[in-house]
Amino acid sequence: MIACQNGQKADTDNTASATPVKACYAYTSAADTIQLTLLRNDTTVTGTLLYRLAEKDRNSGTFAGRMRGDTLVADYTFQSEGVESQREVAFLVSGDKLIEGFGPIEEKNGKAVRFSSLKSLTFSQTFPLLKVDCNE
């Protein structure tokens, strides 16, 4: 419905609560690096993700998703070996760290790899991403 405001703007827009929050996380060891930068606006989350793991192809790209309780679930679009791919990622927020979730996957619509069930995810402490200062 549209209502006449007599030239006054209605004060129903809560822009203060819609301020995006930036956070950065990383895991580093002698052989492996994972870096994640996210921008969270309420439950919507976007950002960048880089995997540089020993014995695996380096991949980096962007993600867009939502917070579902304490878990970030997002579509990760990345480049690896010159090929663009997409897969679903999940990270459990635990204090100042993110724990990546793993589980059975399936192909949807001929290209995107998605988890077959979010309820079946297991969160591995193998590569915990710790909150770090964002390098501007």
What does this structure look like?
With 136 residues, the chain is mainly beta. It has one domain. It contains no helices and 11 strands. The protein has strands at residues 21-28, 33-41, 44-52, 59-68, 71-80, 83-94, 97-102, 105-108, 112-115, 122-123, 129-132. The strands form 2 sheets. An 8-stranded antiparallel beta barrel has the order 1-2-3-4-5-6-7-11.
**Helix segment tally:** 0
Helices and strands, in order, run as EEEEEEEEEEE
| Helicity level | under 10%
> Distance N terminus to C terminus?
43 Å
Spell out the blueprint of helices and strands:
Blueprint: E1 21-28, E2 33-41, E3 44-52, E4 59-68, E5 71-80, E6 83-94, E7 97-102, E8 105-108, E9 112-115, E10 122-123, E11 129-132
Antiparallel strand pairs: 1-2, 1-11, 2-3, 3-4, 4-5, 5-6, 6-7, 7-10, 7-11, 8-9
Give descriptors for this structure:
mainly beta; 136 residues; two-stranded antiparallel sheet; 57% strand; disordered N terminus; single chain; 0% helix
In short:
This protein is mainly beta.
